[in-house]
């Protein structure tokens, strides 16, 4: 009799344990089988995904749900012009190596370089981030030192160097070597003549001085030649024009 009662009791307990009433109420769960098909039990809650591996292409697992990846891509060709595909997302370039077809990274976008060195830019502009633009911080590119370089003045409509001018250039060379760094050699003109003519004359003046500096021993890579033409001329008569016809070292 007691055996019969015990058996009945065991059957009742088993029924209770196995009863659907003991299954957590959805979306609560204890295992994947408590969830709908295709869902997973994560932290006792039924969710669409455990991680991004449970989601389809172009999706990621975020807060338990598969959502579309913003700016998703498989190749740079999927991205807007200038952007690159990195880690399956379209975004800005970080280095020139991110860009293809000879393009460079300019302010986060791949583009064609306007310049790569200062020498490729017009007078007064510098190659900054592959673009020719003013450099408001561009003072002297020479290193620190006690010596100073002097301005070389020219005769009217001339780019010839006299003995006295050469002695000045040699003294400037000694100072440049002592201070180190790079030097910008700027050719200037008085305002007489056309803009084009004065730019060419300023170029000749700067280059003849540069040639002497190179002959003395300064490497060409340390020198930048610039013609300002009449751009910075301030003279109104011969006394002022004398000061406009010059080569300056910066």
Describe the model.
There is one protein chain. This protein has 250 residues and is an alpha+beta fold. The chain has helices spanning 2-18, 163-179, 195-216, 238-244; strands at residues 40-42, 45-47, 59-62, 65-68, 84-86, 89-91, 104-106, 109-111, 126-128, 131-133, 152-153, 183-188, 223-229, 246-249. It folds into 3 domains: 24-69, no CATH class; 71-112, no CATH class; 152-249, OmpA-like domain (60s Ribosomal Protein L30, Chain: A). The chain has 4 helices and 14 strands. A hairpin with a 2-residue loop joins β7 and β8. α2 crosses α3 (195-216). The N and C termini lie far apart (114 Å). The mean pLDDT is 87.
Number of E strands:
14
Kindly provide the radius of gyration, computed on alpha-carbon positions and rounded to a whole number of angstroms.
Answer: 38 Å
Distance between the termini: 114 Å
In DSSP terms (H or I, runs of 4 or more residues), the helix count works out at: 4
Biggest sheet: strand arrangement: 11-14-12-13
Structural class label: alpha+beta
Order of helices and strands: HEEEEEEEEEEEHEHEHE
Task: Work out the strand percent.
Answer: 15-25%
The CATH fourth-level homologous superfamily of the largest domain: OmpA-like domain
In quaternary terms, these chains amount to single chain
What coarse outline follows from CA principal-axis ratios?
A: rod-shaped
Helix content: 25-40%
Low-pLDDT parts are none
The total domain count is 3
């Amino acid at each position: 009799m007691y055996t019969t009662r015990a058996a009945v009791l065991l059957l009742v307990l088993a029924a209770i344990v196995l009863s659907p009433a003991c299954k957590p109420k959805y979306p609560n769960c204890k295992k994947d089988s408590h969830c709908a098909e295709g869902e997973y039990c994560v932290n006792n809650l039924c969710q669409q995904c455990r991680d991004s591996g449970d989601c389809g292409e172009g999706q990621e697992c975020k807060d338990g749900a598969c959502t579309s990846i913003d700016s998703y891509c498989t190749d740079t060709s999927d991205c807007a012009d200038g952007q690159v595909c990195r880690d399956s997302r379209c975004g800005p370039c970080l280095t020139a190596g991110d860009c293809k077809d000879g393009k460079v990274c300019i302010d986060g976008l791949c583009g064609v370089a306007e310049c790569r060195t200062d020498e490729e830019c017009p007078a007064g502009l510098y190659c900054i981030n592959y673009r020719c633009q003013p450099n408001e911080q561009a003072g002297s590119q020479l290193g620190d030192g006690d010596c100073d370089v002097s301005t070389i003045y020219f005769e009217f409509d001339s780019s010839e160097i006299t003995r006295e001018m050469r002695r000045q250039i040699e003294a400037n060379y000694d100072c440049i070597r002592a201070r180190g760094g790079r030097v910008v050699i700027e050719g200037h003109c008085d305002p007489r003549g056309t803009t084009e003519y004065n730019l060419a004359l300023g170029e000749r003046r700067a280059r003849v001085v540069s040639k002497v500096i190179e002959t003395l021993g300064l490497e060409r890579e340390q020198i930048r030649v610039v013609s300002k033409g009449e751009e910075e001329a301030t003279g109104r008569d011969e006394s002022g024009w004398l000061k406009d016809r010059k080569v300056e070292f910066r």
